[in-house]
Design a protein that fits this description.
Elements lengths: L1 E6 L7 H16 L2 E5 L3 H5 L3 E4 L30 H10 L4 E6 L1 H12 L4 E5 L15 H22 L2 E6 L6 H10 L3 E3 L7 H13 L5 E5 L27 H13 L3 E5 L11 H20 L4 E6 L2 E6 H4 L8 H8 L5
Parallel strand pairs: 1-2, 1-4, 4-5, 6-8, 6-9, 7-8
Antiparallel strand pairs: 2-3, 10-11
Amino acid sequence: MRIGLLTSGGDCPGLNAVIRSAVLHGIKSYGDEFVGFKDGWRGLIEADYLELSRHDVRGLSRVGGTILGTSRTHPYNHPGGGPENMIRQLERHGVDAVIALGGEGTLAGAKRLADEGLPVVGVPKTIDNDLDATDYTFGFDTAISIATDAMDRLRTTGESHHRCMVAEVMGRHAGWIALHSGMAAGAHAILIPEKRVTMDRVCEWVEQVHSRGRSPLVVVAEGFIPEGAEEALAGKGTESSGRPRLGGIGEWVAARVEEHTGIETRNTTLGHIQRGGNPTGFDRVLATRFGIKALDLVHEEAWGFMASLSGTEIVKVDLTAALTGLKTVPMQRYEEAQVLFGR
């Protein structure tokens, strides 16, 4: 078979590891040929691709980002998009199937295209770990490691100056990064989109810690909505996709804490640092296993399915199961962490 791969949506550590394992497995186990469509769905729609050989994927498992490039091109709304044109492009260039690596938006497009006749399987990725039907997505562990290291550093400088430190991390609708990195770093308050908290309560936690001579650490997800507010803070315009560009809640929280407690407070926004760099060992292994499974799904002609992690096993899951809703932080997980706040 001649198989095309594409990476769509936000970049993520581990994408190259998927590409590497799929190509090597396909060549060695099935005698397949591979092409890589550039910049997500755009490359497929416009037949903009490159050939992928064993040499091209050599050593990729440790490399962050994606050698194929990515974009948020909509598979239907982009000029020339839609299943009919895509199927014609595949036939014209002798491509038998597509492996689409992406998050919720990408997989939703892949499912719709599969239902309309495009031979496509999916690989789930997002640093936010908010995709349903898989226990973990690659990129999440890397983001946690990066954020935890940054918070460890914030705590040492905070202790030196007796300041409260605020760390803003990614997480538009789900607070997994904030929860895991905050717990790992020993944060004294963690603020996530799933849980409304008053600033009075946050300040109480901060004051409890400061009164013991410690430097409080507050971790806040970018999508956190304080009690009494209507929506997440988005003072940076909109993305090309039309979504509000979140960010700034860390500065807002820091200002409120300093105003209400009198404790000098500083904010650090980690931003895209969380998505960059080389993947952790865990993410390299998970991404590699996803790539192998996705290639097997292609040979099963399991169109509209994706690779998924269930416990320690990589299994086949209908894309529909991943699109029923976001996987958000359960309240029992938040309450588990909240036991350690303040005090």
